[in-house]
């Protein structure tokens, strides 16, 4: 028996009956020979961790555009916090921690530069719309590895696609990431907003902090414990009614007070204009998109709009700024 088979046997002996067992995966679109060391979900996790799209997350905005200071979250640190929360819950419930982690690491690969501001402008201007969770699937299925994709399992792709609020993941591990994503961003966005002087802990609604806690640490502790307690030995991932309601109301408060706050979003108008101008420019001049990128897309007979959208969505914040400068900002003449 090889190492992978030993791990699969361990899962059978120790996991909850509601877990996604590695040897019961629905598999990949393109069949592959199994690894003799890693389970199928461990391989998916590693493929995501080593892909270029994952590395670019470190230079993509979470909420605050181009913040001064090293301690604000980026899209990468958000992803890692979601993975940590998800793994904690998954381990406590005796579910598949490797599947949970793979979904977490891949769930935001399709996010645009400048956070949701970039997502909104591409959704407005592209004829087919734009949704980051669908773009994450395009990344892992088509765009990575020069058009080959990562050939991930169906369970991981399902979790990535359905991590949004209205999603309905087919596995409990996917459901864990769906809720861990909210737990992470609500709390770390509060932390960043306090750091940025947008709000203070005392300004948070008392009727909500009385339930969830009066610090980021307390709120994370409350929410994670509640999910574990309410979901233990159940075929679903649940929260108690009062804690779920408090989290939903706190999320709404954050939308009203931070996500649309002029002080936090003052630069978004510039980001909107910049991405819009670049989109229109590259639609008129697709030959200026890097050859390596165009060759992948043309092989798949995609429209120009789709090629441009994929190109811009994959940019980091600074790369987008540099490309904009190269196209639209005059440089000094040199003889």
Task: Name a few traits of the molecule.
single chain, 335 residues, mainly alpha, 17 helices, 0% strand
Q: What Rg do the Cα atoms give?
A: 21 Å
Order of helices and strands: HHHHHHHHHHHHHHHHH
The N- and C-terminal alpha carbons lie at a distance of: 70 Å
Which range best describes the helical content: under 10%, 10-25%, 25-40%, 40-55%, 55-70% or over 70%? 55-70%
Mean pLDDT: 93
Proper CATH architecture of the largest domain: Orthogonal Bundle
Secondary structure tally: strands: 0
Strand portion, in percent? under 5%
Overall number of domains: 2
Largest sheet: none
SS field, number of helical segments: 17
Overview of this protein structure:
It is a single chain. The chain is mostly helical and 335 residues long. It folds into two domains: 3-265, Hypothetical protein af1432; 268-328, no CATH class. Helices cover 62% and strands 0% of the residues. It contains 17 helices and no strands. Helix 9 (172-195) packs across helix 12 (241-259) and helix 14 packs antiparallel against helix 16 (304-313). The longest helix is centred in the middle third of the chain and has 24 residues, at 172-195.
């Amino acid at each position: 028996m090889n190492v992978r088979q030993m791990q699969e046997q361990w899962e059978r002996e120790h996991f909850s009956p509601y877990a996604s067992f590695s040897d019961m995966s629905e598999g990949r679109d393109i069949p592959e020979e199994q690894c003799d060391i890693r389970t199928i979900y461990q391989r998916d996790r590693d493929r995501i961790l080593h892909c270029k799209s994952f590395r670019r997350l470190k230079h993509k905005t979470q909420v605050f555009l181009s913040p001064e200071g090293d301690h604000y979250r980026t899209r990468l640190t958000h992803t890692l916090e979601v993975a940590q929360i998800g793994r904690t819950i998954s381990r406590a419930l005796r579910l598949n921690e490797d599947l949970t982690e793979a979904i977490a690491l891949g769930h935001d690969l399709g996010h645009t530069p400048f956070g949701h501001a970039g997502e909104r402008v591409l959704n407005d201007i592209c004829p087919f719309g734009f949704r980051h969770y669908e773009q994450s699937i395009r990344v892992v299925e088509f765009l990575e590895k020069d058009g080959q994709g990562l050939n991930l399992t169906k369970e991981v792709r399902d979790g990535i696609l359905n991590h949004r609020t209205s999603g309905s993941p087919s596995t409990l591990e996917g459901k864990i990431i769906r809720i861990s994503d909210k737990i992470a961003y609500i709390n770390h966005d509060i932390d960043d907003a306090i750091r940025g002087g947008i709000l203070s802990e005392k300004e948070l609604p008392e009727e909500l902090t009385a339930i969830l806690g009066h610090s980021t640490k307390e709120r994370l502790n409350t929410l994670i414990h509640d999910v574990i307690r309410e979901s233990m030995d159940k075929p679903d991932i649940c929260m108690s009614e009062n804690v779920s309601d408090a989290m939903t109301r706190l999320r709404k408060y954050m939308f009203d007070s931070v996500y649309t706050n002029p002080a936090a979003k003052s630069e978004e108008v510039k980001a909107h204009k910049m991405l819009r101008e670049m989109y229109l420019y590259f639609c008129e001049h697709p030959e200026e998109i890097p050859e390596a990128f165009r060759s992948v897309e043309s092989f798949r007979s995609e429209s120009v709009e789709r090629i441009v959208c994929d190109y811009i969505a994959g940019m980091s914040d600074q790369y987008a700024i540099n490309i904009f400068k190269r196209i639209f900002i005059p440089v000094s003449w040199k003889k």
